[in-house]
Amino acid sequence: MTILVRSGVLTNFLEVAQHVGLNPQAELARVGLSKAMLQDPEHAIPGAAAVQLLENAAETSGCQTFGLRMAESRQLSDLGAVSLLLTHQATLRDGLQVLLEYRHLMNRALAIYVEEAGGLAVIREEVVTENAAPRRQATELAIGVMGRLCANLLGQHWRPVSVSFMHDAPDDLRLHRRIFGCDVLFRAEFNGIACPAAALAAPNPKADPSMAQLARRYLDTLQAGRDTSLAFEVRKAIYVLLPMGRATAEQIALALGLNVRTLQRRLEDEGCSFSDLVNEVRRDLAQRYMQSPQYPLARIADLLGYSVASSFTRWFTSQFGASPAQWRAEHGKPYRS
Q1: Which among 243, 321, 313, 327 has a CA at the least distance from the CA of 281?
Q2: Which of 62, 215, 252, 332 is 20 to 30 A from 233, comparing alpha carbons?
Q3: How far apart are CA 32 and CA 3, in angstroms?
Q4: First to last CA, the chain
Q5: What are the residue boundaries of the HTH araC/xylS-type domain, all occurrences included (predicted)?
Q6: Pseudo-torsion of CA 267, 133, 111, 40, nearest 10°?
Q7: Do 183 and 105 fall within a single domain?
Q8: CB-based contact 292:286 (threshold 8 Å)
Q9: Is 335 contained in some domain?
Q10: Is-above-0.90 flag for pTM?
């Protein structure tokens, strides 16, 4: 299945590519895209191609912060028609709910989950495509855009506590610090932004209930009849819920507004099972965590849903043909306490 996204996710790619010395048309052609495809931000393009485009651009140019540079100049209007409704939400919490509700109209490859605990709110994000290719630049673009969205809605009330990335830190952190204005953590357990929970309830001074109602009616006409894959939505949910220990059929069915039986039946209709999807995501996350040498194997087992280390070892060996310790030794990523 090809996951399609709005070409608007690549807004300002041409400008940033030129700024770092690239030939934008050549980079687009490498992944089967063209400048003409980006003229209409609502044009559908393969999500995997967009992700690969950003990775190629960063590697070719040597600019480790390519995706974040794109996020730096993004406006709320770049989210397309959904921005009409976002602008008039009463609080940030309401705005995040709109992102979840109308995600198919913006970026189907983006998974978002919001959790609140102990006075802290965490907005987790994961870029998911049909393959497990590297997506560092797309992840930084997505989280950078989320940060700008929050700042746009709350203004001076937006004070993030920290931003987390699962990948390694770039050589130069100045851009990250300028854009986010808070601690930026790398080789973290998840990708996302942490902020005071109270920020979710802070009022949006631009909110207009009447305009919000009109915008919602318009978006509902756009969303009607959109064909979506339940298996892909479940896969996205597993990415954000598995490290939290909540990637159960019951939890994900609840998040998607279904009961477990309906979830399982519809997945069967699409030719897959819930356990297959969990295993697929677990394989991808296992390799990411194993490549971060600060995580002991016991912690990785826990993040992947194994409370008993021996069960994790058996699963890992069956999937990768080597024990976790052997795999780490062979891939040059020994544990560093």
Answers
A1: 243
A2: 215
A3: 15
A4: 41
A5: 232-330
A6: -100
A7: yes
A8: no
A9: no
A10: no
